[in-house]
Specification:
Layout: H1 2-18, E1 43-44, H2 47-57, H3 66-73, E2 78-82, E3 92-101, E4 111-117, E5 123-130, E6 133-137, H4 148-151
Antiparallel strand pairs: 1-3, 2-3, 3-4, 4-5, 5-6
Length: about 160
């Protein structure tokens, strides 16, 4: 048994001396995390239009109608009624304004302003993942009539 153990140690020692199984410093992976690549957007809303969108968004109130929202902000990129797959019951009407898009397909890196409306088309929720304009006003957090601009700083300083 000791001969077997000595044989294994000899093989291990030989492998280390000959450089088998070792990686040179140039080949070793970096221990530092590499920065994520910058996202290349395929389409970006003009900066002046972005400022205008957020300035007008600040004037909207929770409880405003979808028609008033469209009159204020302009035609949205998408306007859909969401329903669960199993039942065809109304969940929410979701309106999106794309500010930056990676490509035409749905993408988690897109930067969007999302407005949700209830069954009678009144504004109940506002979200934005746009850089410098992060917004998350959840349903029922504030009473109808609350001005969005008083809740968050939607206009850059």
């Amino acid at each position: 048994m000791t001969t077997h153990l000595l044989g294994r140690l000899f093989l291990l020692f030989s492998a280390v001396l000959l450089g088998w199984g070792t990686v040179s410093a140039a080949e070793q992976p970096s221990r530092m995390e590499t920065p994520k690549p910058r996202i290349q957007f395929g389409w970006v809303m003009d900066a002046a239009k972005q400022d205008q969108l957020f300035a007008k968004l600040a004037l909207l109130k929770l409880g405003d109608t979808r028609d008033l929202m469209i009159d204020t902000l302009g035609k949205p990129t998408t306007d859909r009624v969401l329903t669960p797959k199993a039942k065809r019951t109304f969940l929410v009407r979701r309106v999106n304004y794309y500010v930056k898009r990676v490509n035409a397909n749905a993408n988690t890196n897109d930067q969007i302003v999302t407005l949700d409306f209830d069954q009678v088309d009144t504004l109940i929720e506002v979200k934005s993942n746009v850089d410098g304009h992060m917004i998350s006003i959840k349903r029922g957090s504030y009473p109808p009539g609350t001005v969005i601009g008083t809740l968050v700083n939607v206009v850059p300083k």
